[in-house]
Amino acid sequence: MIDWSAIGWMAALSAASLAGGIVGAISGLGGGIVIVPVLTIFFHIPIQQAIAISLVSIIAVSSGAGSVYVKEHITNVRAAMFLELATASGAIIGAALVSRYLNAQVLSILFGIALLASLIPIVVRFGEELPQNVQNDRLARFLKLDGSYFDKNLGREIDYKAGRVPPAMAIMFIAGVLASLLGIGAGVLKVLGLEMALRLPTRVATATSNFMIGVTAIAAAGIYMHRGNLVMPYVVAPAAIFVLLGAIIGTKIIERMSNTAIRKFFALLLGIIGVEMLIKGMSM
Predict the structure, then answer these.
(1) If the chain, 284 residues long, is cut into consecutive pieces of 10 residues, what is the mean pLDDT of each piece?
(2) Is residue 1 part of a domain?
(3) I need a labelling partner for 106 at 20 to 30 A (CA). Which of 3, 38, 160, 185 fits?
(4) Would you call 150 helix, strand, or coil by DSSP?
(5) 284: exposed, middle or buried (Cβ count in 10 Å: 0-12, 13-18, 19+)
(6) Which domain holds residue 131?
(7) Number of domains the chain is built from
(8) Is 31 a domain residue?
(9) Is residue 3 part of a domain?
(10) Residue 3 phi/psi, 5° resolution?
């Protein structure tokens, strides 16, 4: 006899994972923004296991979308590899040490407030298609973080510079800590750091974040696996497969979007995550 409830359960999981992959590829946030709430609220999976599954799906998003963006020379690989040192360190410290002592309620509330406050500079820049008057700082010049890419939406090659590396490194470290603690949040802060601190074009920030989130997720997932949280292969496998498929679809959609449209999409998700974190913290 066919177990229709199991089929429906798997179909719902696959649809959520597909949506997570699309959203993650476009916004640079990974699939956690969709997958973690779905797994905990609708599938009643414990939060620690949901985070572990989310980290695996983020690796899939990074593999799918990240490879496409690198191939098209949109990703700033130099910036990604340098800043990932700070992010991976934050992820390891967060998963191994901070999670045992930090008050999750306070963290969620403060994180939600910080995200909602960060909407202000993004909204102010809604009409800015490309960053203006950006100057490389000394470290950015040394690391050669400036670059160029072909913007299919504008139909021309875009040259850009990068600045304010130290603030970007601080944001990346915090992103790593939050990634390991909450399963979501790393991509949010990475895009903010890349766009608001380094002042990279939104499309480059999104692509570079997609490249980086996989490394962060691997660093944190290893610890969750060691703790025995990465179980339920019947959930992990379809989630990873459909997230990867969604990520590939997302890279096709973003080609037709302007930097302004991507920024507005990111701002919408930022607001959703901020409110979600506030509600989560207040309900604990």
Answers:
(1) 68 85 83 75 77 79 81 90 84 68 69 79 81 83 90 89 89 79 67 88 89 75 70 76 88 88 87 81 74
(2) no
(3) 38
(4) strand
(5) exposed
(6) 8-282
(7) 1
(8) yes
(9) no
(10) -90, 90
